[in-house]
Amino acid sequence: MADGGFYLRFRGVRGSIAAPGPDTARYGGNTPCLEVRCGPHLLIVDAGTGLRAFGDELLKEQPLDADILLTHTHYDHIVGLPFFAPAYQGCNRFTLWEGHLGPDMPLEEALREFMSAPLFPVPLNIIESNLRFSKFQAGDTLTPRPGVTVRTAPLNHPNNATGYRIEYGGRSLCIITDTEHPAEGRDPRVLALVRGADVMIYDATYTDEEYGRRIGWGHSTWQEALRLADAAGVGQVYLFHHDPGRSDGDLDAIGAAAAARRPGTLVAVEGSTVTLI
Ligand SMILES: [Zn+2]
Ligand SMILES: [Zn+2]
User: Fold this and answer.
1) Which of 47, 215, 216, 270 could bridge to 81 as Cys pair (CB 3.0-4.6 Å)?
2) Residue 1 included in any domain
3) Angle between the N-to-C axes of helices 222-232 and 248-261, in degrees from 0 to 180, rounded to the nearest 10
4) How far is the CA of 169 from the centre of ligand 2 (A)?
């Protein structure tokens, strides 16, 4: 593993369902997966379809001991897990963190149901010995590895979700997906979590114009990302969880409009890297 620096690599940026094809080739069609390196430590945020190809690359770093932080367990955020090759190698260990299911629903139970006949041929118990399940309550502060602090907050999403703020070496990275903003003002829990962050990755599934027809679906807009960033004094914003219907051209236009309104704003591109240290 790389043993210096604090950086993030987008392994999947698409929301809801994978959207491969010529119209999405530049921004990428894989669903959410983020590689976060904090010095020698590897944190993976979400296990969408982007986890598969990333896992194949990780085989050369074995043995692995890494944390997988789930924002929530909707399919687009976990469907890559059964295709994560390192999980099938006995030398590796992964701690799966989850703060949205509540005390009565163990994550392993949810995953067991997801990986069961007739929906899926490989049962969870094939990989279970390499997995450790770590439940918390959204709002808790975690210290998964020495020097790494992960603050969390509950998000407004059907069946719940967790926002993360990863701090390492005096820098901070926030991942806020999937979430719906309030009709008035900012969500105080999200505002507090992202305050003063160096980088914020935010659910920009819709535009403000589209949002009126999507109230209650649990997602936000690129304009809200900028309002939140301004209110909280966030540094760099990355628009994330792109609607599967957005073409590369659509995202170019959104990126141009967002950067005109808040200079420096970028649209997350699969494969690109954000360096914090
Ligand atoms: Zn999603
Ligand atoms: Zn969701």
Assistant:
1) 47
2) no
3) 30
4) 30
CA of 96 to the centre of ligand 2 (A): 17
Is residue 268 within a helix (H) or strand (E), and if so which, with residue range?
none
Instruction: Give the residue numbers spanning the domain of 241.
Output: 6-275
Q: Separation of 17 CA from ligand 2 center, angstroms?
A: 10
Would 187 be classed as within a structural domain?
A: yes
**CA 224 to CA 9: how far, in whole Å?**
23
Nearest ligand to the CA of 203 is 1
Distance from Cα 204 to the centre of ligand 1, integer Å = 11
User: Scanning the structure block, which residue is given the tokens 């603050």?
Assistant: 151
Which ligand is the nearest neighbour of the Cα of 204?
A: 1
pLDDT by 10-residue block (mean), the chain, 277 residues = 81 98 98 98 98 98 98 98 98 98 97 97 95 98 98 98 98 98 96 98 98 97 98 98 98 98 98 98
| β-pair type (171-176, 161-168) | antiparallel
Q: What's the structural domain count of the chain? A: 1
CATH number of the domain within which 117 lies: 3.60.15.10
Which ligand neighbours the alpha carbon of 180 most closely?
Answer: 2
